[in-house]
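In the current project phase, work has continued on tokenised descriptions of protein folds. One protein thus recorded appears below exactly as we store it.

——
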Amino acid sequence: SSGINAEWPLRPGDKSHPKFKNVKDVKIKFYTCEAQMAGTDMQHITVGEALEKGVLENETMGYFIARIHQYLSEVGIPDENLRFRQHLAKEMAHYAADCWDAECKTTYGWVEIVGCADRSCFDLNAHAKATSTKLVAKQTLDTPVTREVVEVALNKAAVGKGFKKEAGGVTAAIHNMEDEDKLKMKEQLQSDNFKLVVGDKSYEITPAMVTSISTVSKTEHVREFVPSVVEPSFGIGRILYCILECNFKVRENDDKRTWLNLPPLIAPTKCSVLPLSNSPEFIPYVEDLSAALRKLGIPNKVEDSSGSIGRRYARTDELGIPFGITIDFDTMKEQSVTVRDRNSCSQIRVPVSDTPDLINKLCTEQMTWGVAKEKYPEFIGQESNN
């Protein structure tokens, strides 16, 4: 199963999100670690309420959980099949501040399909330590700040003689040490050498290599910090499986007719074009409508295979094609076609000139099928499988 991750950096002590207000009313089922341990029910509350009640710790985690929920809903995961479960203490990575999984209820039980973790600043600190490279972000301060810092002055000649080609890496590692560690080194060098560990190597720092270690006042106009990270992680294969399972349907009163309830947003083919028969008179209409749909960026399929129109509708339903245009003998008389909705099997009669734009609005959710039925007359017929 392939995956896609996003990394959202945060300043220390500030985990607000500028767009949290846009998602605070999204309602989600939260299954906290406390509820799991106590065997109690999930909470079905808004993201804003979850933050107020302490279910969520910060706005950024809430924002991404809401956006994940919106995404999964848009691609066809029903709300009743979706929950967000918080990791138990024994599941939580040692570096994570918090972690939630979006889970989908399937025939296999609840399956994790997206994770959202507050990974703190573990990754960047680990990389910085292993590479002896400062990995920081910089923020220009509105008001300069004066603070006490510990500075180390090195005897470059002694360091170069002692470590040769590795002198640059050792120098950088010393300057990147935390102030507390620099003061420990100062104390150690008063009586002995100091052991500096960089990655899987260690270096002996002698008193001769260090000219001074002192605390000085420093005015900062730019603040350096190691960002913490919130990481949403999407399991693409699992999401795809859940979309297919949740949207596989059987027609009422006919268990032999199955259909795939793919939302128009993700349906690979969004519309079928079906001539009622193989009459040559239909070909120009089929070609023109198919070309008009392609021009609007609507993937479509000409369904002119053998079989009755009802059987061909059933084939397109199994492929998850949301809408169908049928060219029939009235098309040439009235310059109109029928447009069929996959989910309800209902049809309307639409002027040929209106049809491409109507399909475009239905596929992009600018118009619902209910509104289309109010605008155009209903058509009854052409649904038989015989």
Remarks:
- The two ends are 42 Å apart (CA to CA).
- The mean pLDDT is 92.
